[in-house]
Design goal:
The complex is a heterodimer of chains A (325) and B (643).
Chain A: E1 4-8, E2 10-11, E3 14-15, H1 17-33, E4 37-43, H2 47-53, E5 59-64, H3 73-87, E6 91-95, H4 98-111, E7 115-125, E8 128-135, E9 140-146, E10 152-156, E11 171-176, E12 186-192, E13 206-210, H5 220-229, E14 233-236, H6 238-242, E15 263-267, H7 273-279, E16 284-289, H8 296-299, E17 302-305, H9 308-324
Parallel strand pairs in A: 1-4, 1-6, 4-5, 5-11, 6-10, 7-10, 13-14, 13-15, 15-16, 16-17
Antiparallel strand pairs in A: 2-3, 7-8, 8-9
Chain B: H1 34-39, H2 46-57, H3 65-72, H4 79-83, H5 89-106, H6 111-123, E1 151-154, H7 156-161, H8 163-178, E2 183-184, H9 195-199, H10 203-219, E3 224-227, H11 230-239, E4 248-251, H12 252-261, E5 273-277, H13 291-299, E6 303-306, H14 324-327, H15 337-347, E7 352-355, H16 358-371, E8 378-381, H17 382-389, H18 423-439, E9 444-449, H19 454-463, E10 467-472, H20 480-493, E11 498-502, H21 513-521, E12 525-534, E13 538-544, E14 550-556, E15 559-563, H22 575-583, E16 586-589, E17 605-611, E18 620-621, H23 626-639
Parallel strand pairs in B: 1-2, 1-3, 3-4, 5-6, 5-7, 7-8, 9-10, 10-16, 11-15, 12-15
Antiparallel strand pairs in B: 12-13, 13-14
Helix pairs in contact in B: 2-5, 8-17, 12-13, 15-16, 19-22, 20-21
The chains are: A alpha/beta (325), B alpha/beta (643).
């Protein structure tokens, strides 16, 4: 089998965790197929990233250009398309990130190669690449294979592949990539600062977190009371922010905050992987959900299958009583 | 909508806010309007709502979420109508409902009301549970499907799906069985009665439900109906005649009263308790039935019946009417009407709060817990009390999981699942509508799928798209590349400035389509867009990165964006809107019409099989009644040193 590519992503002067996860998986596949793992890093100054990813890679391709300060999909696509055409890897891996959402689909169209996104497993079976995707909100796993082709592009689900420290010392090949194109049709205007409020949920020891099942803004008050007796803060999943019931500073998950409280009490939160990615380091997780099949019960230490509106008032009172004793 | 077009334009100004609409009978207290009792602000009383409605319709104030919540916090309990001393009092509640209708037509209603109505459109019940599970409450009861029986036993949505109310539905079934009443049920074929839909102002959906129910009842030869819920009773008795539904409708309490009169119920088992009875609005104020429940309770040996101060036509609504048992705009406070009422019941010294409505039952049970009165006051439906007096024990059934894989292992079983517009696509469509409202232009909605998906396109048209195109091709679980190719071929033929996609689909979640189509069309794109402003030749957008940060871009038109949730608040699609959209023509094409031959549509990514995820680690479940589970959890948390 020809080589395996892993694109390593960085933002704000740091390699993304997902890139190390993807490199670890890529290393494992390359060892199994007895082929080379090539890590690709792209940026204005790639030295530090290249040295780091070399631990997993047989070779690092470090693409440098002054205009590559921010990771932008269009120039990245040009570079990757060039490298893939030139070196014909069997598998191209990258994390399923916001950048990859912009980048991977057009790249697959340009190269006319198949694409599988947000994969939770990748395996080699008799030389064929098989991927697993989690569909129908985590309730079903689907296995896919690919039609015969030179290259397949696969994006990996965040948090799905453990980081295994690398012990290689891959050789670094630096390439200065000249652009003819200006990309004027899509101008990067900068990062937008997040709205800042009074609460920092990442510092809370106890988080009482609510999902869509809270039904209305009015009902937040009930949850607030529970958080108060526990000496914690109220946090939430994405839909609660989408509906405008709580501000985004209280959102836990991939697109929100990553939290590590002593207790994470998930109320009517189904437990999508995007949400779980933000709270799985909690020391203790308790889930209350009407749906016994909700994925959150796979993450939680304790669970109650019931309506939060029935449990929360009683729980609040019981805790207050125990505190008084 | 202007004031002149409003049905009550000639009378709404006549309310001068005397304030009587808030009173109970003794006119010493103003807490009988449930929303006023909860919020203690004039805007939440009937008079306040009428003034706000007039101000809104005459353009003095704009629509807002807050205004919508004020109108929808009305539970349609009819206290205002009973207490208003003026001649136009017969219409004051209708004026509020008509104002809700205007909001429904404009699609601007509170998100919980939107969910409630959408669930009924899709699954025939407000919870959005599958239709095929509607009859599960009756498993093991021996209750028969209706087939020429004397009575249709109509259970309603709450009795069919709410686990606590299901116990009541079973209790009543057993009581009727024991009394030898000839009755049958519709099971999974039962549909929502529409009473709440009507009071929420979704007239067209109500008409459809009423027409369908009347047609179904007639086809089965049904003449007599007994309902579990006063809400069903009200709709069928008072509204269905307008749809040629002249059935003999009874609420179950009336049937029990007459069975006792005919000596057909052996209640010698008795029920030893002090009981206070709460009059449900849709039995009492709406239908003047105050005595039958009291007759039944008084007849049972061992019951001492005591009245709360506010009773009969001065009952305080539980706060669950007008859909509020689900949308719950009055909850979350000590002043929530259900909690006020539960405290009143407790103050009488009664050990049992008896109700004759599944909505009141669920509202009060929650309120008893919130008040911490579980040890002193229990909420029981009269049918349960009668069942116990008859010596009947009632069993429970539990819920099963929703998703199953079919025998081919290549698809999931679709029966019981209803199709809807993908969440992300709905946000994209709303974004398009808002751009059109601001800048003009036309919107074309395009989908690739089998014929059933016409419904989805109709919803898009009802929401405000100008034309709809469906490419007839079955795409279930196929390579997104194929769908992208088809879409690109269609879009290429249409003039466009902006192409919007949902960022991903709810079922497969690949998130590939939009960006693929952009590459195929050769236009710039951005995915995961969370804000969007358009100018003549360019757009300013921000898109979501990880960990709560955003990045912004200026992009030349034409361009393609994939829209993320939360960018806006998608409007409600009323059934009236969908009906109008039925008149708009849908264009249907095949891939062949687009010059795409079968061999161009061979997927490169192929589904091998589906599997349920491995069991893996599971939470340790705490089981039992809420009092016990919550207590156990509190102990566990204390032992873990959390507090």
């Amino acid at each position: 089998m020809s080589s395996i590519f892993v694109m390593a992503e960085h933002r704000n002067q740091a390699l993304a965790d997902i890139s190390l996860q993807t490199l670890s998986k890529g290393r494992q596949l390359a060892d199994q197929a007895q082929t080379e793992l090539l890590a690709v890093v792209i940026g204005k100054d790639t030295t530090t990233y290249a040295e780091k990813v070399a631990k997993w890679a047989d070779k690092v391709i470090a693409v440098k250009n002054d205009r590559l300060e921010e990771p932008l999909a269009e120039p990245y696509q040009k570079i990757l398309a060039f490298l893939i055409k030139e070196r014909k890897p069997k598998i191209v891996l990258m994390g399923h990130t916001s950048l990859a959402m912009d980048l991977a689909p057009p790249l697959s169209v340009e190269l006319e190669c198949p694409l599988a996104t947000d994969c939770t497993d990748i395996s080699l079976q008799n030389g064929d690449v098989i991927v697993t995707r989690s569909i129908h909100n985590g309730k079903v796993n689907a296995a896919y294979s690919f039609a015969p082709c030179d290259t397949v592009i696969i994006t990996t689900r965040i948090g799905e592949f453990p980081i295994e420290e690398g012990n290689r010392q891959g050789q670094i090949e630096e390439i200065d990539f000249p652009f003819e194109e200006e990309f004027n049709y899509k101008k990067f205007e900068g990062y937008v600062a997040q709205e800042v409020g009074g609460v920092d949920i990442t510092q809370a020891d106890v988080l009482v977190s609510v999902g869509r099942g809270i039904k209305d803004k009015e009902n937040i008050e009930m949850v607030q009371k529970l958080a108060e007796v526990l000496g914690g803060e109220v946090s939430c999943s994405r839909p609660v922010v989408d509906y405008g019931w709580l501000p985004s500073e209280r959102q836990v998950g991939l697109s929100g905050k990553t939290v590590k409280p002593k207790l994470y009490l998930a109320l009517a939160i189904s437990g999508s992987f995007q949400h779980v990615a933000g709270m799985k380091s909690a020391k203790m997780t308790v889930a209350i959900n009407k749906d016994a099949g909700a994925p959150i019960f796979k993450v939680a230490d304790f669970g109650i299958v019931d309506d939060l509106f029935k449990i929360v008032p009683i729980l609040t009172r019981k805790i207050a009583e125990l505190k008084d004793n | 909508m202007t004031l002149a077009d409003y049905k009550y334009a000639d009378t709404i100004h006549r309310c001068f806010r005397c304030g009587y609409c808030k009173f109970p009978v003794n006119w010493m207290d103003v807490n009988n309007c449930p929303a006023y009792a909860r919020f203690r602000m004039e805007t939440y009383s009937c008079g306040g709502r009428l003034w706000l409605t007039r101000a809104w319709l005459s353009g003095e104030i704009d629509w807002s979420d807050h205004l919508a919540e004020i109108l929808y916090s009305c539970t349609a309990c009819k206290n205002c109508e009973v207490k208003c001393p003026l001649r136009f009092n017969v219409d004051i509640l209708n004026m509020i409902i008509a104002a809700k209708s205007e909001m429904v037509e404009a699609g601007r209603i509170p998100s919980s009301v939107k969910k409630f109505l959408e669930n009924i459109q899709r699954q025939g019940n407000p919870y959005g549970h599958p239709r095929v599970k509607r009859g599960e409450w009756m498993e093991g009861t021996g209750i028969e499907p209706y087939q020429g029986h004397d009575f249709l036993y109509y259970v309603g949505c709450v009795g069919s799906y709410d686990t606590r109310a299901q116990e009541v539905a079973r209790a009543l079934g057993k009581v009727m069985q024991k009394a030898g009443v000839s009755f049958g049920v519709l099971g999974n074929d039962e549909n929502c009665d529409g009473n709440e839909v009507n009071k929420l102002g979704e007239e067209t959906l109500f008409e459809m439900l009423a027409e369908e129910n009347v047609a179904q009842f007639k086809k089965l030869g049904i003449q007599k109906v007994v309902t579990l819920s006063p809400h069903s009773y009200n709709a069928m008795k008072n509204d269905y005649p307008m749809f040629n539904g002249d059935f003999n409708v009874m609420h179950y309490i009336q049937l029990l009263d007459s069975l006792l009169g005919d000596d057909r119920l052996d209640i010698s088992g008795g029920y030893n308790a002090t009981v206070t009875y709460h009059d449900p609005c849709f039995l009492g104020r709406w239908n003047n039935e105050y005595e039958a429940p009291r007759n039944v309770l008084k007849a049972i040996p061992g019951i001492q019946l005591i009245e709360m101060e506010r009773n009969r036509d001065s009952t305080l609504c539980c706060g669950g009417g007008g859909g509020n048992f689900y949308i719950d705009l009055l909850g979350g406070s000590e002043r929530s009407p259900a909690r006020i009422r539960v405290r009143e019941a407790h103050a009488t010294g009664a050990g049992i709060l008896a109700v004759a409505c599944p909505n009141c039952l669920t509202m009060f049970e929650d309120a008893v817990k919130a008040e911490g009165l579980e040890e002193e006051l229990a909420v029981r439906d009269v049918s349960e009390i009668v069942a116990e007096a008859c010596g009947i024990r009632v069993c429970d059934t539990s819920e099963a999981d929703a998703i199953k894989i079919d025998s081919s292992q290549r698809d999931i079983e679709k029966s019981g699942l209803a199709f809807k517009i993908n969440d992300w696509d709905e946000y994209a469509l709303e974004a398009a509508l808002q751009l059109k409202e601001k800048l003009g232009g036309t919107i074309t909605a395009v989908t690739v799928g089998p014929q059933e998906w016409n419904d989805i396109l109709r919803r898009a048209l009802a929401m405000g798209a100008d034309t709809g195109i469906r490419i007839d091709h079955d795409v279930a679980s196929e390579d997104p590349y194929i769908v992208a190719l088809i879409l690109k071929t269609v879009i290429q033929r249409l003039p466009h400035d902006l192409v919007l996609f949902g960022a991903q689909s709810e079922d497969f979640g690949s998130g590939q389509l939009g960006a693929m189509v952009a590459e195929m069309l050769g236009i710039p794109h951005a995915t995961l867009v969370v804000s969007l402003e358009a100018e003549e030749n360019e757009i300013h957008i921000s898109r979501e990165l990880e960990a709560g940060t955003l990045e912004s871009y200026t992009i030349e038109l034409p361009a393609l964006l994939t829209i993320h949730t939360g960018i806006n608040q998608p409007r409600y699609i009323s059934l009236g809107g969908i009906k109008k959209a039925m008149e708009k023509e849908l264009q249907v094409m095949s891939p062949n019409d687009l010059g795409l031959s079968v061999d161009m549509l061979i997927p490169m990514v192929k589904l091998k099989r589906l599997e349920l995820p491995p069991k893996g680690k599971e939470a340790e479940l705490i089981t039992g009644q809420p009092e016990a589970t919550a207590g156990q959890l509190a102990k566990t948390l204390k032992e873990a040193g959390i507090f």
